[in-house]
Amino acid sequence: MFLMLSFLAPSRTVSALRIPALIHRPTVPILTNSRSCFLSHTESKLVNNNNNNRRSISSKLHQKTEDDTENTNGASNNDDTKEAPYEEYRNKNNIRDQILAAISSNGEIKVTAATTRNLVNDVMMRQSLTAVPADALGRSMTCSLLLSNGMQEDQTFQLTMACDGPIRQVVAVADTTGAVRGYVGCPSLGTMTLPEAIGKGTVQIVKNHPSWPNPYNGITSIINGDIDRDVGIYLAQSEQRACALAAGTAVAPGGILCLSAGGYVVEQLPGCSEETVRIVERNLGRLVDRDGTKGAAPTGILKNGGTPLDICEAVLDGLGMEPLLQVEPKFVCECTEDRLFRAIRLLPREEIMDIVKTQEQIEARCEFCGKVYKMGPEEVADRYKKAKGDASLDEDFVEDDE
Predict the structure, then answer these.
(1) How far apart are CA 53 and CA 313, in angstroms?
(2) Within 130-227, where are the H helices?
(3) More confident residue, 94 or 77
(4) pTM score of the predicted model
(5) Domains (ranges, CATH) in the chain?
(6) Distance between CA 129 and CA 232 in Å, rounded?
(7) pLDDT computed for residue 213 by the predictor
(8) 226-252 residues labelled b (16+ CB within 10 A) or e (exposed)
(9) Paired residues of 112 in beta bridges
């Protein structure tokens, strides 16, 4: 028997909408028309939501904004001095994958942009993905990377598209360092659109941190089936965040190579003025026109040599831009033999021993990276003798030091 294991901690699985006390939620009612409070890459309208009761971003970011604004007001407008600080953020022709976060000089808008072509090509080879599953997983991993940017250290962001379409499921897990992994339920699909592959179901978000008593779980319905717009609707409905989110991939004919992949999220921060909103709306409209793709922004810009820095500059045109940080996203899988056996222990022991007797070994493949693990009967029996605690509880699971 061949087991397929995803190595997700059981305590992080979405089971219901549960909001721990440590997550502050706004008291402002959600707008009844979700499309009016969400900016998709095809609509180009920024939400002007009431942010007075919103959870503010970190004090470190605000302090940087105040300091940088003072420096900007007193700085020279000389073009040479403007370009020098941005040199380290340039990524000609998107040779390397990159996530870049920037803030407007007035501290009212934050933009995070990403190029993830190498990442998508890596996962396509690992999991033998055809074009549509590659598009689904590429968008999901990009959305996870964008939304995990700026989180606490050791915090994780998990996006699951639990759907009834042929693809069955899409999972992506990312953290603030740019580490990401993901998989799809069906890696090989024929010619069809992404919404057809997704079908109907739910968008499930899990945010977790080792110090939290419980993870933050959120869930909304899949409306469009193109992933990024559905995640954007989740942000508007469940978290009441005023933002614009876009993610896409462009796969070459034949489905063997990703030509470009990436995305951006534009977030309205507390105290944002109507004038700033109007400027960003105008800039986003120009950005979408420049991209030229239908439902796959910003792959057109990225394929033509545009970079995350170009996207940030375009969105913040007229507002001033201050880069915050950049990271290089990487596919990182956390599978180990210890995690494999932990997953095995969640199954009935009698069933596992029967597999060992008939097959002479346990063989399992990690759904994230594709690595195959094998355990013979003696190793399985020895590990059962040494096993302690409850395998379903994180606090009872300790990996052996190599």
Answers:
(1) 29
(2) 131-148, 194-198
(3) 94
(4) 0.78
(5) 2-9+335-395 (3.90.1280.10), 31-49+85-331 (3.55.30.10)
(6) 25
(7) 93
(8) bbbbbbbbbbbbbbbbbbbbbbbbbbe
(9) 101, 265
